[in-house]
Structure formats: structure tokens, C-alpha cells
TrEMBL record:
Residue ranges constituting the PAC domain according to the UniProt record: 511-563
Repressor listed as a keyword: no
Residue ranges annotated for the CHASE domain, each copy included: 111-190
Enzyme Commission code(s) on record: 2.7.13.3
Full protein name: histidine kinase
Length: 837
């Protein structure tokens, strides 16, 4: 073999050197090329790592802004605008140093709250009317979800983004919360290195969906760096991130090529030197790999620490809001809970294993099927949901929770995961129940008031009106809400009344006015209205509460008196002219005329004085007594309910005595006014069809607490079918109220029976009691005004003696009759009969 020609040829120096040169040159250049690729890949990997790090920071910044706006929106949705807005804003802005401003915007687009306020004098600014800001503001309203708008040139300088979260209260848009993030500071901080040199050029852009143009956040011209753009996810729209190295590193692979060529020349002469080269290169590669691995581990640990910190902050926020979160892997059927979920469900994370079956075991049995069906339908139909259901905690306590859920799907529309939140709303449910009961009681009390009672908010919109307004105006409750009540104002009085109302609001003073209203039939009424400020728990004005009473009769009497005065003056003038026609008669009757003039003037003064006294009496009684008494009764009721603050036992007892005395005095005033109108022939009744059974039941329900307090029972024997009576419902109820309340007043035990029958087109109602009764001698005195019976009816009973007199006159007006049968000590039977038509 050693003597073969090939071996001898290869053994030649120049052949060995040439072959060595060729082999070393090939190997060295190949390795130089690989080194070149490694350096290129390292530089690209460095940029990629930098891009990923910035992407993570940007996405983390967006998530922080999402958390901040969501938290503020949630607080407003559940509790209204917080009084400590600045404190909450400081906490939310402190979550990220690039947060610049926190804002609250109302449903009309006006900025109502901003922090910090220095250099941010934008309260009252309407962003929906602004061409640029309005586009980004309408998007979250349409989407009903979180939205990022940018790039935005900030008033404080620089460029940033505005994160907005819409606020919906009772499924109605009520504004949104917003966080302004200064991205220019974010990118400036990225450019600060140990050597204070700018190693990279950064740029963030967003594709405008309307114009299709790419809008940049910074002033760098990136036209030549399009290949360096990296798409990133930022909730909405197409975003691109540019990271371009300002200094290209010299690729050491070129030196490797030079060194390889040199080594190939030297190695062709010194072959043995080459054998150690591969081992050194391998060590070099291994050292580089170890260094890269160390850097990657450092990046991983840093990222992991930030994620854990974010999770800790999220857990704290969930605990404060009593809001837990869960995630269900639909393919693996694995359920995971946040820490707050275990607190809400009162389970130990170490002992309780979260699963769908375990979850449904805690759901209240009556709600279990509903929750399962809604979740199944939502997953099947690719819909999110929001429901409220109950939890049965240890079979002893009930909790109310509100759950929201969304489902993610793969490219084949197969459900992958379901994400949801669960919030403990037990306290909110209790508050809602208390408020609902209070509102029902308030409406029940005001419904029976003989005057109009109304509530107006700060914007001048009506939020409540009782039934008396509906009867006066002819408008429905819905038509009267908001600014609809203004349509009932008489055209000649409308501008004046609205001006007076506006002045009361602007000056923060009491509203007081007299005006006319006109119903749909054209009938005009005169009202006297008075409203006072309504304050909340913080002593801030939230609107006005007021009453309005009918003064049509008073105005009519004043006009009639004016006509009488004018007629009297005309009669005097006519008589004077007749006397002037005859000089002789004037001389003969001069003395008589003087006497008659004196007498006539006296009679005129008497007539005027009588009418003025009558009008003054009616006006004073209606305006100065009845209206204040209604206010006293209403406000004592509010005090007794504890709306203005808790009362001790003695205070409640004394205010209760004030309320009872006020009700008694108000009844007496109303009776006196009614009997005065009856005697003057001014009492008017109207006729319209109504359900008599409903009216009677309403009267019995109103008096039932009074009967139960005395240990009495009221039995209502209904007629076979409901009866539609055509008469004056209010006056009929007044008679029934008087008869049943008298039966309660003069009975100490037993049963009060109310019987209703229809015969010969007449509706007969009997009120039968087992009270003290009335003697035959006193029966004729029953219907005489201001008379209280002696003997059987003791003076110890309250009353003015007007109730039965008014009832008899009302029955005469309505075409009916009232009769009484009674025996002393055995009770009484009062019977009223009314024509059905």
C-alpha cells in the first residue's frame, strides 16, 4: 500500500500541502460562513427578543389600562360616581408609571371628572362633539366593550393612547371611564441605556380603518423600514411595532474567513496545527450557547416575576370587588378557579377540588336547571351571557351572585374554553329590596293625597307624579315623565312658569307659583304649586320635591266678586244719570239720594266685605292650612321611615303623635271646606265609569290597619261579578271612607260587615257594625252639620260632626240615598244606594 503510486503521489510535499491547503481552506471558509450565519442569527434573535419584550410591555400596559378602566367602570355601575374619585384615581394611576390622566365621561359625552386636574382643565368638554376624539369615543359605545384609541396628540405634550371602557347602568349607556397613557415617555425610556446611547429606533403604528393609512406615534420616518414591522395584538385594529438597530455590528464571520485563509496557508505547511482547531471552535460554540441560555433564563425569570406581581394585583382587586374568575377547558373538562372564587363559595382550596359537578352541587336547587341551560345554550350558540342566581352555602345560607361568561372557539368553531366571572351581590340584593319596599310605601302614601305631589331632578325632568296630577291633567304617567309635564301648562303661562322654575334652580331657592293647566279636553284648572330642595346624604341638592293644589274655585270666586263690584258701580252710574236728566227731580230728591247713596255704599261695603271674607276664608284654609298640613304629614312619614337618619324611641313616639294630630287636623280642614262648598252650592261632581269593587277594596285596605289595631275584623261580602258604576269615584270613596271609619271609631270588638248588592239598576252598599249604636231620639240629628250626639255617642270620640252631613249631601248630588238603622248598644247599619248609570 505504501509503495502504491497513489500513496507516493499523496506523500509528495506539494501535493500534501496543496491537499491540506484545499481541505483547510474548505473547512475554514465553511466554518466562517457558519459563524457569519450564527452572528446574523444572534443579532436577529437579539432584535426578536427585544421586540418580544417590548410587545409584552405594551400588552402589559394595555392590560393595566384595561384593568384600571374596568375597575372604575365597575365602581360607577354598582355604586354611582364615587365621592372619593381622586383617591381612587391615585390608586389606579399608580398601577403603571406611564398612566397620565384618569377621566370620567357622562352619557352625553361631557367630561365630568379628571385627575390630575393640573394642566387638565377639560371638565365640561364634550368629546363626542369633537371630530377627532368623537370617532374613538363612539366605537366603545357601539361595541359595548373596551377600546383603545390612538395615536392621540396629548394636551400635555407628547403622543399617547386613550383607553375607554363603556359604562352601562340597567343596560343603558351612562358614559365611560378613560385612561390616557403617554406612549412617547414609554418609548423614550426604552432608548436609555448604560452608555446613554440610542441603540434602537422604535416606532408604533396603527392602521386607520377608515382611511387605510398607517398612523405613527413617533416622528421617525419609517418608510425604509417596512420589512422590520411586526404585527402585535392590541384589542382592536391592526398595530405594528418597529424595532430597528441604529448600529449594525461587524460580522466576525468575515474575520473568520480571513483567518481561515491564513490558517489554510499556514496549515498547509504546519498540518499538525490544524488538528486542535476543531476542539477550540467547539468550546467557543459551547461557551456562546451557555451564555445565550443564561440570558434566556434571566429574561424568563424577569417575565415570570412580573406575571406573578400582576396576578397578585388582580387577586387583590378581585377581593375588593368580591369578583372571582373561572376558566373551563371544554375539551379536557377541567375547571380552574381564582382565589376569590373559593372565598365567595366559602371553600378551602386545599380540600375542595373545583369541577362542574361540584359547582352545580352548590347552586341553589331552584336555580340549578336554569344555570345549566343558559350555560349550555351560550356555548352551543356562541353567545355570552350575564345572569343572577343563588348559592346554597352549607344548606343553611343563601348567597346571590352575578355571573358573566364568554366562550372561545378554534378555527373549526369547536368550543375550546369558557371564561367567566362571579361576583357576590348579596349585600346589593338586600339594599335593592329595602329601596323597593321604601319606594312602594312612598308611592302608596302619595297616591291617596288630595293634592299633586311631584319630584323633579337637577335637570328639570320629572321623576314621579301621583294620581291627582293624572286626574287634573288628563295625561298618563308615562306622558308626564321627563319634560312631558310641561305640555299640560297653559300656553299663556308656560314661559313664565318655566322661567320661575329655572330661576329657582339657578339660585338654589324655593319654587312658588300660581298658574293654569289645560287637559286634553281643553278644561282649564288653576293650581298653586310650591317646591323645596331635596338633599342627599351628603347634603347635596339632587332635585326638588313639591305639591300643587287646585285653586280653581278660589279664582272663580274672585272673578265673580269683581263682576259684582262692576255691576254695582254700573247701577250707581245709571241711577245717577237718570237723576241728572231731571233737574227738578234732582233738587227734590237730593236729600233722599244722599241717604240712599250712603246706604248703598254701606251695603256695597258689606257685600264686598262678606265676599272678601268668604274668599279669604277659603283661600286661607286651602293654601295656608291644608297645603302645609300635607307637607307636615309627608315629612313626618319620611322621618318615621328613617330616610333622614335613625330616631330613638322617644323621638319616634313624639313624631308619630305629630303625624296623627296632623292627619286629624287635615281631615277636619277638608270637611270644613267641603261643607262650605256645599252650603254655597259650589261643590261639583263629575261622572265617569269605574270599577266599584276595586274602589271599595282599596278603601277597606286603607282602613284595615286601623281596624286591626282595635282588634276588629272587616268582612267584605262581594257581589257575584264586578260592578261598573258611572259616578264620581273620588266622592263615592269619600262616603265609603266616612262610613267604614265611623264603624271602626264607634266599635270596640266584633265584626264590621260590608255587603254589596245590585237590584233594579241600583247599587246598594251596607256597612254593618256591632258598636255602641244610636238611640231613636238621636237618629234625626245624624245628618246635621257640627252636631255630635250625646249619650250613645260620647264626646270623647274625635270628629267635627261633619262627616255624615257631607256624605248625605254628596249622595244627593250623585242621585243616591243614605239611610241608617240603629239600636242603642247593639250596633248600626248604614245603607247607601246609587244608580248604576
Amino acid at each position: 500500500m505504501k509503495s502504491s503510486p497513489l500513496y507516493l503521489f499523496l506523500k509528495k510535499p506539494w501535493v500534501a500541502g496543496f491537499l491540506t491547503f484545499i481541505i483547510l481552506l474548505f473547512v475554514s471558509q465553511y466554518m466562517a460562513y457558519q459563524k457569519y450565519l450564527i452572528n446574523e442569527n444572534e443579532q436577529k434573535k437579539e432584535i426578536d427578543n427585544h421586540v418580544n419584550l417590548i410587545k409584552e410591555k405594551l400588552q402589559s400596559l394595555v392590560m393595566f389600562s384595561y384593568s384600571a378602566t374596568k375597575s372604575l367602570a365597575y365602581i360607577v355601575e354598582r355604586s354611582g360616581v364615587p365621592a372619593d374619585f381622586d383617591t381612587i384615581a391615585i390608586e389606579l394611576l399608580g398601577r403603571n408609571k406611564y398612566f397620565n390622566v384618569l377621566e370620567l365621561v357622562d352619557e352625553n359625552g361631557f367630561i365630568t371628572h379628571v385627575y390630575p386636574s393640573i394642566d387638565n382643565q377639560v371638565v365640561g368638554y364634550n368629546i363626542l362633539e369633537n371630530t377627532l376624539a368623537g370617532k374613538g369615543a363612539y366605537t366603545p359605545i357601539k361595541k359595548k366593550d373596551f377600546f383603545i384609541d390612538g395615536p392621540v396628540n396629548l394636551k400635555q405634550g407628547g403622543v399617547g393612547i386613550v383607553s375607554r371602557q363603556p359604562i352601562f347602568i340597567d343596560k343603558k349607556f351612562s358614559g365611560f371611564s378613560a385612561v390616557v397613557t403617554k406612549l412617547s415617555d414609554f418609548f423614550n425610556d426604552l432608548n436609555i441605556t448604560a452608555s446613554h446611547t440610542q441603540r434602537f429606533i422604535y416606532q408604533l403604528s396603527r392602521l386607520n380603518p377608515e382611511t387605510g393609512r398607517e398612523e405613527f406615534f413617533l416622528e421617525h420616518d419609517m418608510a425604509s423600514f417596512k420589512p422590520f414591522a411586526v404585527n402585535i395584538e392590541m384589542f382592536e385594529g391592526k398595530w405594528k411595532l418597529y424595532v430597528v438597530s441604529t448600529k449594525q455590528k461587524f460580522n466576525t464571520g468575515i474575520w473568520f474567513a480571513i483567518y481561515g485563509f491564513t490558517i489554510a496557508i499556514g496549515g498547509s505547511w504546519i498540518v499538525y496545527f490544524f488538528f486542535g482547531q476543531s476542539e477550540r471552535l467547539e468550546k467557543f460554540y459551547n461557551a456562546k450557547l451557555v451564555e445565550q441560555e443564561t440570558q434566556l433564563r434571566l429574561i424568563y425569570k424577569t417575565t415570570e416575576s412580573k406575571i406573578k406581581k400582576s396576578e397578585s394585583n388582580l387577586n387583590k382587586a378581585q377581593k375588593v370587588a368580591k369578583l372571582g374568575s373561572w376558566e373551563l377547558d371544554l375539551k379536557k373538562n377541567e375547571l380552574s378557579w381564582s382565589k376569590e372564587m373559593y372565598r365567595i363559595f366559602e371553600k378551602d382550596p386545599k380540600k375542595f377540588e373545583a369541577s362542574q359537578a361540584a359547582f352545580y352541587d352548590i347552586v341553589h336547587p331552584e336555580d340549578k336547571d336554569m344555570v345549566f341551560k343558559i350555560f349550555t345554550d351560550a356555548v352551543k350558540n356562541n353567545k355570552s351571557y350575564q345572569i343572577i342566581y343563588r348559592l346554597d352555602i352549607d344548606k343553611e345560607r343563601i348567597k346571590y351572585v352575578e355571573e358573566q361568561c364568554e366562550t372561545s372557539y378554534d378555527e373549526n368553531q369547536v368550543p375550546e374554553k369558557a371564561f367567566g366571572t362571579v361576583q357576590d351581590i348579596t349585600d346589593r340584593k338586600k339594599i335593592e329590596t329595602v329601596l323597593k319596599n321604601s319606594e312602594l310605601m312612598y308611592r302608596s302614601l302619595t297616591s291617596y293625597a288630595p293634592v299633586v305631589i311631584f319630584n323633579i331632578d337637577k335637570s328639570g325632568k320629572c321623576t314621579y307624579l301621583n294620581e291627582e296630577w293624572i286626574r287634573y291633567s288628563g295625561m298618563t304617567y308615562a306622558e308626564s315623565m321627563g319634560l312631558g309635564w310641561q305640555n299640560a301648562l297653559h300656553p299663556l303661562d308656560k314661559d313664565r312658569v318655566l322661567s320661575e322654575w329655572q330661576e329657582a334652580f339657578l339660585t338654589n331657592s324655593e319654587f312658588k307659583s300660581e298658574f293654569r293647566i289645560q287637559d286634553k279636553k281643553g278644561e282649564i284648572r288653576n293650581l298653586s304649586a310650591k317646591a323645596t330642595k331635596l338633599l342627599d346624604a351628603n347634603n347635596e341638592m339632587v332635585g326638588h320635591i313639591g305639591i300643587a293644589s287646585d285653586i280653581t274655585d278660589r279664582i272663580k270666586n274672585e272673578k265673580e266678586l269683581l263682576v259684582y263690584k262692576n255691576n254695582l258701580e254700573e247701577l250707581v252710574n245709571q241711577r245717577t244719570e237718570e237723576l241728572n236728566d231731571s233737574k227738578e227731580a234732582l233738587l227734590n230728591l237730593l236729600e233722599d239720594l244722599n241717604e240712599q247713596s250712603i246706604e248703598l255704599e254701606k251695603e256695597k261695603i258689606k257685600a264686598q266685605s262678606a265676599d272678601l271674607m268668604k274668599s279669604s276664608f277659603l283661600a286661607t284654609m286651602s293654601h295656608e292650612l291644608r297645603t302645609p298640613m300635607n307637607s307636615i304629614i309627608g315629612f313626618t312619614s319620611i322621618l318615621l321611615k328613617g330616610f333622614a337618619g335613625p330616631l330613638n324611641e322617644e323621638q319616634a313616639k313624639q313624631i308619630g303623635m305629630v303625624k296623627k294630630s296632623g292627619q286629624h287636623l287635615l281631615g277636619l280642614i277638608n270637611d270644613i271646606l267641603d261643607i262650605s262648598k256645599i252650603e254655597a252650592g259650589e261643590l261639583k261632581v263629575s261622572s265617569y265609569p269605574f270599577n266599584f269593587g276595586v274602589s271599595l277594596q282599596k278603601t277597606i285596605d286603607f282602613l284595615l290597619p286601623q281596624a286591626l289595631k282595635k282588634g276588629l275584623i272587616i268582612e267584605y261580602e262581594r257581589y257575584k261579578t264586578d260592578v261598573t258604576l258611572t259616578s264620581d269615584e273620588r266622592r263615592v270613596e269619600q262616603v265609603l271612607l266616612n262610613l267604614i271609619s265611623n264603624a271602626i271609631k264607634f266599635s270596640y270588638d266584633g265584626v264590621i260587615r260590608v255587603k254589596v248588592d245590585v237590584k233594579d239598576n241600583m247599587l246598594t252598599t251596607q256597612v254593618i257594625d256591632q258598636g255602641i249604636g244610636i238611640s231613636k231620639a238621636n237618629l234625626n240629628k245624624l245628618f246635621v252639620p257640627f252636631i255630635q250626639l250625646e249619650g250613645g255617642l260620647s264626646r270623647s270620640h274625635e270628629g267635627s260632626g261633619l262627616g255624615l252631613a257631607i256624605s248625605k249631601n254628596l249622595m244627593d248630588k250623585l242621585g243616591g240615598t243614605i239611610q241608617v238603622k240603629s239600636e242603642l248598644g247593639k250596633g248600626s247599619t248604614f245603607t247607601i244606594a246609587l244608580p248604576i248609570n
